[in-house]
Design brief:
alpha/beta, Rossmann fold, pyruvate-formate lyase- activating enzyme, 2 domains, seven-stranded parallel sheet, six-stranded parallel sheet, globular
Length: 451
């Protein structure tokens, strides 16, 4: 039996510093588990970050084709699924998109999708190999107690290293991604979490610290990795667990860490633990420089003013920052956007950040914002265009012109050498316009006061 696990292409959404930099660990984990449980099965991973859609289609010959999905890649996944089905393959769809609207997908695509997996795909794929024909499979158990860590030899690992270095030339690292935990405690406590979050993990779980370092040792000794990007929702959300990770750290393992954290988790104690990893970079969701719009993001703690204070604390600990801004939160106006742009410039003045994330709010399926939008308009299609969703959201929840919001997005992105966004229209001419705006208005240095 042959299994093909496919990450569809992202097409016009590749214009950011993360494109092609990180292996699809979900698919790698599934493949690793298949090799452990069913060693006679042939497993192939095809990553659309490195091959074209035409090449993916030309290589379709698996008995089972497993497709990862998100809002960007779903249309390509459907095209691949259609052709795979025509060639006699059994087609399994998973990923955050499939987990968010499984019933809708099965209703519209019952002729080409054999099974939709909600949650984690390792055990469900083994069940498929062993003959399961269940149409909707729900598995919220991340399997930390029985899963092996992902075997990076199953993908062209050096390709990702090379692309990361090309995308981040001044960082000078052999970097890769890991997951130390899954789920978000804030999402559980607040009945939905941040308004734009569409993460599918309904259970918060933490890996055994010794297992974390076992994986890291493999990455350091066998792949010469010296920089780890922990793609967990937040590495700091369970401070007692983080202390155990630090306690379990082998003295001879010292790759640097890049982690995600919420603003209300950052204090001197959590930073002392982070530095012991050692962490030198934190990605922080800032969202807005306007206090009222910030509250509308449902972050649960902090404020734009506190963010600038934390930024100064991070400088004290010699930790760099990747700020993340979301344009188009409920009630967004030109005045609030000016406050956000000012905030971004003030933050850059304090930290000199090299990398920045900024995007107009996308009401992804599975998020509170998607549910809010469905309360305003009828959405029954399983294929959702991101740019249309952005506009539809802005028309219903913002008091500012959509194109002006787009322009502010570009102006914030221009502050970073490395830009992360979700837009198929991020082209050089937009950044030239942003440069001209910044120059003409002398937005730099101490032109703004702390909000």
């Amino acid at each position: 039996m042959k299994i093909q696990l496919i990450q569809p292409t992202t097409g016009e959404y590749r214009s950011n510093s993360r494109s092609g930099s990180y292996p699809p660990l979900g698919l790698v984990s599934i493949a690793t588990f298949i090799n452990q449980e069913c060693p006679d099965v042939d497993v192939e991973i095809i990553d659309g970050e490195f091959v074209t859609e035409d090449e993916i289609i030309s290589r379709l010959d698996g008995d089972v084709v497993g497709l990862n999905s998100n809002t960007i890649t779903y249309p390509q996944a459907i095209k691949i699924a259609t052709i795979a089905k025509e060639r006699g393959s059994k087609v399994i769809l998973g990923g955050v998109y499939a987990s968010a609207i499984p019933e809708l997908i099965l209703r519209h695509r019952h002729d080409i999708i054999d099974s939709v997996v909600v949650g984690y795909g390792e055990k469900p794929m083994i069940e498929v190999i062993r003959g399961s024909t269940e149409r909707l499979v729900i598995n919220h158990n991340p399997g930390f107690n029985f899963l092996p860590y992902p075997d990076r030899s199953l993908v062209g690992f050096e390709n990702y290293i090379d692309v990361f270095q090309q995308n981040h030339p001044t960082w000078n690292y052999r970097a890769t991604n890991i997951f130390t935990n899954v789920g978000c405690e804030w999402r559980e406590k607040s009945n939905g979490g941040c308004i734009f979050c569409s993460r599918s993990g309904l259970v918060t779980a933490y890996r055994n610290p010794e297992k974390v370092w076992e994986e890291i040792r493999d990455l350091v000794e066998n792949y010469n990795v010296d920089y780890l990007i922990d793609f967990s929702d937040t590495t700091m959300q369970n401070i007692d667990w983080l202390a155990e990770v630090v306690k379990a750290k082998p003295k001879n393992l010292n790759p640097e860490w890049h982690i995600f954290a919420r603003i209300d988790e950052i204090n001197r104690y959590s930073l002392e633990l982070a530095k012991a990893l050692p962490c030198n970079h934190i990605f922080i969701g800032i969202e807005s420089g306007d206090p009222n719009v910030y509250k509308a993001a449902r972050k649960g703690g902090g404020s734009p003013k506190e963010i600038l204070q934390v930024a100064k604390l991070l400088q004290e600990y010699d930790i760099e920052i990747t700020p993340s801004y979301v344009i188009g939160l409920p009630g967004e106006s030109e005045e609030s956007l000016r406050s956000t742009l000012e905030h971004a410039h003030r933050l850059h003045e304090i930290t000199g950040f090299e990398e920045v994330f900024c995007c107009q709010l996308i009401p992804f399926p599975g998020s509170l914002s998607f549910n809010m939008l469905r309360g305003k308009v009828s959405i029954d299609s399983d294929v959702l265009d991101i740019e249309f969703l952005k506009k539809l959201w802005a028309e219903n929840f913002c008091v500012i012109d959509f194109e002006l919001m787009k322009e502010y997005t570009y102006r914030i992105l221009e502050l970073g050498k490395y830009k992360i966004t979700i837009s198929k229209n991020l082209h050089p001419e937009h950044l030239i316009l942003a440069n001209q705006f910044n120059s003409e208005n002398e937005i730099a240095g101490n032109a703004f006061t702390c909000v």
